[in-house]
Amino acid sequence: MRVLMVALISLILASCGNKSADTDTDIKPDTQKTYSWKLVTTWPKNYPGLGSAPENFAKKIAAMSGGRIKIKVFGAGQLVPAFEVFDAVSQGTAQVGHGAAYYWTGKAKAAGFFTSVPFGLNAQEMNGWLHYGGGLELWRELYSPFNLIPFAGGSTGVQMAGWFNREINSMEDIKGLKMRIPGLGGDVITRAGGVSVTMPGGELYTSMQTGVIDATEWVGPYNDLAFGFHQVAKYYYYPGWHEPGPILEFIVNKEAYASLPSDLQAIVESAARAVNQDMLDEYTARNNSALVELVETHGVDVRKLPDDVLTELRRLSAEVLDELGQDSEISGRIAQSVMEFKKQAMEYHAISEEAYYKVR
Amino acid sequence: MRVLMVALISLILASCGNKSADTDTDIKPDTQKTYSWKLVTTWPKNYPGLGSAPENFAKKIAAMSGGRIKIKVFGAGQLVPAFEVFDAVSQGTAQVGHGAAYYWTGKAKAAGFFTSVPFGLNAQEMNGWLHYGGGLELWRELYSPFNLIPFAGGSTGVQMAGWFNREINSMEDIKGLKMRIPGLGGDVITRAGGVSVTMPGGELYTSMQTGVIDATEWVGPYNDLAFGFHQVAKYYYYPGWHEPGPILEFIVNKEAYASLPSDLQAIVESAARAVNQDMLDEYTARNNSALVELVETHGVDVRKLPDDVLTELRRLSAEVLDELGQDSEISGRIAQSVMEFKKQAMEYHAISEEAYYKVR
User: Fold this and answer.
1) pLDDT tens sequence across A44-73
2) Helix (H) or strand (E) holding A25
3) Nearest one of A124, A290, A227 to B344, comparing CA atoms
4) How far apart are CA B71 and CA A225, in angstroms?
5) What distance in Å separates the CA atoms of residue A40 and residue A58, rounded to the nearest whole number?
6) Which of A47, A57, B1, B322 is most buried, judging by how many CB atoms fall within 10 Å of its CB?
């Protein structure tokens, strides 16, 4: 009887307790199982704004999951180089990546649509298109063959046109201009007779200083001030026609995501959404004070690109986007979706956001 | 012996099992404990946009917590009337509320600053101020004596100035105008010689139809189309000077929040943040197509308020805000914080968001 009682108690104990998988699977699968993920980024570790988003993502997920998902964040080059993030997550070397879709146009040309296109949507509109205009579904379709699930992962807001050591008074001044400007914006500058150059952020200061390049775009006052471009450039031009609403991305390896129980999947999704807004909030607050410092402390010469230059850049941008839309069947569908959204958004924002900016 | 064994087994069962608090506190407190919360709102159940935010909040929390927090959403009047949401959550009748801070100016006058003020910040700027400009800390300080923790809970974007049955060509046309416009916007209209009226949304259509009021503001195309105001009003004026960036709120009862383990607290916080962006995304997408329908299908006469009227409304708004800032010590600090943020945001947005809208 004593033996029976001990056996019975053991049986009961085995079916409850903290570590018991049996108890868990009865009701909630995997509530004790933990996941160790690697997150690789295209930014230096802890780079202001851009690099703090993946850190916040990891922290939020750790807190919400009670430590069930631990994410270790690697800056560019720590686990894989910046431009191997896409492949690393696709192949499962890391479970998550943080970067920007337009870095992967070599893999899928239409990826360019999902960061920002010249004269395209601003950040608020990009988020509207992605989450309520069919954009995210198209993005996921595009990345599916690569074993990746994309999520919107933050925005810097409208960028600045960049730092110039040459005055831009007409399209003639773009001719021969050596400018660091990647992606579709770079294609537009090339088409305008300039020389678009791609180089890492860390080389820009010296390249401007030594005249290797005449101009560079980067982000906006908050990040630009930190790089000290005001020390090596004469003019700071606006507006950022080439990247009006850049949306960054979290990419998650499909199998890694599928392996999570549904509560952890929901946590990953909401963490991405929360960080997506948080980064824009941070830039919206910090760009302001950085601009004040650039102008009042450093006497930066802030200039608007001439209207006729912007008109011509807009015309060339439409050509570039038109060609991109003809690149493949899915490119065509993405181009159509985003252009229709833009047409309506422009009509409504002309009488709402834009009209309000003018009168306040 | 049999009795002892049963007692022993009962004791063991009582200390493990799904509902056991004892076992849980050993390692991860309360991982099996469930919480049933009530959420009361100031909107009708499932009202488009406004009313879907609390539903999304409840769904996200249920999914992320694996059902550990179950939130039942009550529309206005189902558990408490719309304008008793603040008291109900303060007193713990419900654990969460969803509404807008400017409904509670009778409790704390400075609450008006946390939704939207005439000629104030737009939605992107409000989010920047709240989350990176000290706004949220001030909001929490203001609500603390009421036993409440506020979270940003969505935005409609810039609203429309409203539906009018009187042409507005000068300030003379505001004189005697009976307009449904609550809050600080209403104070401005009163100061301009109009008659500001407060009435529930459900009465507006008939009041416009029968001439009880000459004008009403509501939200924007998406919600306005659903109410059918185009059938009873001649003119649809913009821009929404009175509510340029309304931020809604989730309010959580302090003790209810404190009773949650930290992972569930993190889940509540991120769910609010995700919904905060999600609602703006929804309005950004749906206002567009609703405007197209209003104009193209219903032939709505969309008009801009004259510049001199807007200039005078801006002057009166500054007076109203100045008085509000003098209402109490905390009002003064909030006014100073938001006005400083606005000054910088206007400078930066003039060369970024606003400049881009003009040239794209």
Assistant:
1) 998 999 999 999 999 999 999 999 999 999
2) helix A21-27
3) A290
4) 46
5) 11
6) A57
The alpha carbons of chain A give a radius of gyration, in whole angstroms, of: 24
Give chain B's largest Cα–Cα span: 95
CB contact at 8 A, A166 and A181: no
Could you give the CA distance from residue B169 to residue A284 in angstroms, rounded to a whole number? 36
Nearest by CB to A357, which of B16, B292, B357? B357
Of A129, A132, A347, the CB nearest to B291: A347
State the average pLDDT over residues A219-243: 96
For residue A231, the number of C-alpha atoms closer than 13 Å in the C-beta half-sphere is: 10
Whose structure tokens read 């750790």? A62
- Using DSSP's 3-state secondary structure scheme, residue A220 falls into coil
Specify which residues B247 forms β-bridges with.
B155
B353–chain A nearest CA distance, Å: 6
Burial of A326 (0-12, 13-18, 19+ CB in 10 A): exposed
- Give the DSSP H/E element, type plus range, for residue A69: strand A69-74
Give the predicted TM-score (pTM) of the model: 0.91
If you search the block for the tokens 């992107």, which residue do you land on? B124
What is the sign, positive or negative, of the torsion defined by CA atoms of B91, B325, A290, B350? positive
Q: Please state the separation of Cα A168 from the chain's center in Å.
A: 29
Alpha helices in chain A (DSSP H): 2-14, 21-27, 52-64, 85-91, 123-132, 135-143, 183-191, 204-209, 221-227, 254-258, 262-292, 307-325, 329-351, 353-359
Distance CA B59, CA A65 (A): 17
- Cα gap B231→B219, rounded to integer Å: 16
Report CB contact under 8 Å: B157, A286: no
Residues 59-98 on A with a CB inside 8 Å of B are 60, 63-66
Lookup: tokens for A75: 């800056």
Question: Whole-angstrom Cα distance, residue B48 to residue B226?
Answer: 9
Q: How many CB atoms lie within 10 A of CB A30?
A: 18
CB B244 within 8 A of CB B314: no
Per residue in B308-330, pLDDT (tens digit) is 999 999 999 999 999 999 999 99
Q: Are B118 and B241 in contact (CB under 8 A)?
A: yes
| The two three-digit tokens of residue A356, written as one number | 């309000």
Query: CB-based contacts of A359: which residues, under 8 Å, 6+ apart?
Result: B239, B241, B307, B310, B314
Give the ipTM of the model, two decimals please.
0.90
Please answer yes or no on whether A221 and B266 come within 8 Å at the CB atom: no
Distance (Å) of CA B64 to CA A352, B67, B104, B168: 35, 8, 31, 50
Q: CB B82: neighbour CB atoms within 10 A?
A: 17
The token pair at B47 is 């009202």
Distance from C-alpha of B182 to C-alpha of B175, rounded to nearest angstrom: 17
pLDDT band at B167 (very low <50, low <70, confident <90, very high): very high
